[in-house]
Specification:
The complex is a heterodimer. Chain A is mainly alpha-helical. Chain A contains 5 helices and no strands. By secondary structure, chain B is mostly helical. Classes of the chains: A mainly alpha, B mainly alpha. Bound molecules: protoporphyrin IX containing FE and copper (II) ion (CU).
Amino acid sequence: MNVTALPEQYESPRRNKIHPLKFALWVGCASLAMMFGGFTSAYVVRQAAGNWLEFQMPSIFLVSTATIILSSITLQLSYYHFRRQNTKPYRMLLVATFVLGVLFLALQYMGWLELTARGVELRRNPAGDFVYLISGVHAAHVLGGLAVLAVALIHAFRLKKFTPRRKLRLELTLTYWHFVDLLWVYLVVFYWLQNR
Amino acid sequence: MATTVVTQPAGKEAYNTDELIEKYGFDDHFHEHHHGDKFQSNFITKYIFSQDHKMIAKQFLITGMFWALIGAGMSIIFRLQLGFPEESLAWLKPLLGKWIEVNPDTGVGTLSQDFYYALVTMHGTIIVFFVLTAGLSGTFSNLLIPLQVGARDMASPFMNMLSYWFFFLASVVMFLSLFVSTGPFAGGWTAYPPLSALPQASDGSGVGMDLWLVSLVFFVVSVALGGINYVTTVLNLRTKGMSLWRMPLTVWAFFITAIIALLSFPVLVSGFFLLMFDRMLGTSFYLNEIYIGGQALDHVGGSPILYQHLFWFLGHPEVYIIILPAMGLVSEVLSVHTRKPIFGYKAMVYSMLAIAFLSFIVWAHHMFMAGVNPFISNFFVVFTLIIAVPSAVKVFNWIATIYKGNVRYNSASLFAIGFVSLFISGGLTGIFLGNSTIDIPMHDTYFVVAHFHIVMGVAAFFGMFAGIYNWFPKMYGRFMNETLGKIHFWGTLIGAYAIFWPMHYLGIAGVPRRYYRFDNFDAFSYFPEMNQFITIAAIVVFFLQVLFVINFFYSIWYGEKVTERNPWKANTIEWTTPIHAGHGNWPGKLPTVQRWAYDYSKNGVDYVPQVVPLGEGEEDMGRH
Ligand code: HEM
Ligand SMILES: [Cu+2]
């Protein structure tokens, strides 16, 4: 996102409580949430139609869930130190978040392998296909999150001054990352509720 | 009731809005920060990769017009086939190449059947998405939201620029699909599986469908980027005094439209993801026990109905994404050109909100024949019929606005009045179709074609024309030619009814839509004259649209120049900007809004712009 084109150079007449770009990101997240709402509704409808393979979710997904939750915590802490301008913990925690994010993707991949190994390979039954599809599209969103985190890392190690614009950028990154985290938690809980 | 101190000064520039803005406006120090104009410094950043919402609006409009001509041209070709199935189309060979099959003995050229379906499909896709969504909402949300809420630009001008360029990309991909050797996708604009899910199902189901999907995914990205901006700008960047209840109905309409789009298009994408998996990875979300050439495919357990649910969860809101902006434009244009406040302003807003909400819970009325549970159908019947209530409220309010108004019959207001007529005619047939018992025989007949073309197709075009004629002076600093505009209006109004009215009868007689020819079916072969009549009317209407396009481009360069800022004497604040507004819209301070947008003929004063302070004891119509 090109932050130089922000209208923040001039004052807003309304003294907003929330920065327009942050608000825009929230709106975007709501929109993405609808897409996953679409997936999970399709899941419910299709499941109700029968011819449905019952299987256990790969246990690795629990590890990956813990990983992504942890990454949200480290990012939040990193932001905490950013605001206090404690450069070192801010940088380290940011690196930790990035590593955890990469780890999450690796764990997802292992989860798919485990599913396949258990005989729930792609094309076997929509029940399994849904898991691949939904977790795959989610992983793509995490990948996008990693890209913004990478930018945040470059900033963390290159830039010296703590400007409001840098803060805004980090806050946007934070919001998006929490969003993909929450999304995954929703998906896991959804799966659990549907397959109790 | 109120003793007003507001008097309208005589003279040419009736109100000195500059002075009012200087006196009451809000100084945001915009121009101190923008030395020169870094956004528009050269040709490329000004005309091509522009971040100025006014230029992006023009880009959407002109791209939309390009598509409108192609989409309409396609309909002429398939109408020729339907009206004159025996005539030779060999003269179209230079344009359509192999899609016209010329009999070597007789020299008679016939339209290939596959290409007929491709034309119908592309016509629908192009008009629904590229013209009436991007070309309408993209144009006017971009042009009017910042100008009418008093913002320098969109919340993120950069994302706004991307929004256009994703639309452009979608356009390029769709355009290319017209030229692949197997033809573009040909399974209907709704792209139901299995035709859309099995690449081997028909000629267009292969590469054509791949490109269709890619194009539409780009398109959804464009809609999302635009929509995020529209919502954020309305909620965050309104100028001082612009409370929600002081916003013009145009802005309300664009705002609600953007919310609907942001909530419904992503669901279409999720449906597309399942489709892509079926196409490319061989999964069976939508496919079940299909035989091709007597050979069973190994797809089992899928459900094509699932796709219909996901598609129409977008598809129905989509029709309101198309019509709401038109409704907003019409409300504003009617109020300005009848010199009357819009009747029932708040009722207009609440009915738009009600329509928006209801539009999400009626989608299965497109599926009454698809084998959904009849008990569930009843639920959808009830909510579908309830939509008629807010729709009727709006119609009533428009008529009440026109009633006893001091109407200026110019192209803009005529098209707005025409919109109301069309919306009534098409809305009534919707109520027929909303009853599942009536829909079961009517479904997939020309009755449905007539319904949605009148209520959505033509009506939305009318709203768009009203908007173009009305805001052309703001866009280009010139007027469009009025005589040509009136010819355009009367010809199109009469022509459109001539095309679609007879289709109701065809539909009631059971003539199905999407058939290549009718003369070899005993049941449907009785109406050749009616089909010829429709085709001739369609050709006439097509040439009237060409006339409009000529008028449009001619007027950009040679139209009568706008000499005063506010040629229509309108209240909304876009008319307080200079005739050729630069980036940032207002040269100095931002205007402070003092009243709602509809103080027309109030207390004997013809109009009172929104920047004029309330008089002592004057009633504030925009209070909460
Ligand atoms: C009083 C309000 C309305 C009602 C009750 C209504 C009802 C219906 C029903 C039941 C159908 C399905 C017919 C069938 O396929 O058998 C239908 C089709 C359609 N309606 Fe409406 N409608 C209304 C207003 C509108 C409006 C305002 C628009 C657009 C602006 C619209 C656009 C469409 C479209 C595009 C289709 C056909 C899509 C297709 O099958 O290709 N309708 N309508
Ligand atoms: Cu509908």
